[in-house]
Amino acid sequence: MTWLFVVLGCDRPEPEPVTAAPSDETRLVTVQQEIRRPDGRRYIQVSRHVELPVDGYAELPDEQRDVAFQVLNTVTGPCAPCMDEGITLADCFLEPPADCETVAQVAQRVVRKAGEGSDKVEVLEAVEYADGWYPVAQESQGLDFAVWIDDSDMGVQAEARFAELEAACPGVLTRRDLESAGEHVRAVPTVFINGYRLRGLQSLDAYVRLVDMELADQGASCPR
What's the rounded Cα separation, in Å, for the pair 70 and 45? Predict the structure, then answer.
């Protein structure tokens, strides 16, 4: 005789998913990715300074002050030390490093642009630099256009691009060549416009945008 047993309603527990514990090396890589961007700079450490001693900031209407507040606390300071460490424009303004001579000017630009009714995107376009400011001596009135190039093919292309820039912004830039590469040059060509650096051969629009940012405090733009 054969007996058949059928068990009904038996709940079997779901097996626990098997995951490998991360190694120390994996943990290290994860932490480094959280702290540093691919270019080696620290991710921005967003601040929340509601009150800032920037001229005109406290007097802005609520909506315009909110725009200024958002930009000042979410964009990096304009100088290389603040950019490298992810320090906001607000923090940079409150405790500027030694080589951060333009931070007050940029903070004031935020307040002025917000006070003119510009939205957050428009204000960001006027103060969000692609690279930092460096203490490259300025020798002329207006916008100083300091260039480091060589006689390679890239240098020839750069000369042509810079000729386009000078034609696009007539009477705005004063050109001079850097006699020494110095510690601030890591690529050829390198351009400093009023101390703000652009490395490598950039598009004409990238150079014009930087010129326009520096003309913003005069209420002007590149007349291209």
Answer: 13
Judge whether 189 and 148 are in contact, CB under 8 Å.
yes
- What pLDDT score does 90 carry? 95
Q: Are residues 78 and 127 in contact, defined by beta-carbon separation less than 8 angstroms? A: yes
Q: Judging by beta carbons within 10 Å of its beta carbon (0-12, 13-18, 19+), is residue 2 exposed, middle or buried?
A: exposed
Rounded to whole angstroms, how far apart are CA atoms 67 and 76?
16
Residue 4 has pLDDT above 90, yes or no: no
- Check if CATH label 3.40.30.10 holds for domain 143-218: yes
pLDDT value of residue 218: 78
Domain residue spans of the chain? 38-133, 143-218
**CA distances to 53, 87, 218 from 94, in Å:** 8, 11, 24
Question: What pTM was estimated for this model as a whole?
Answer: 0.75
pLDDT at res. 28: 43
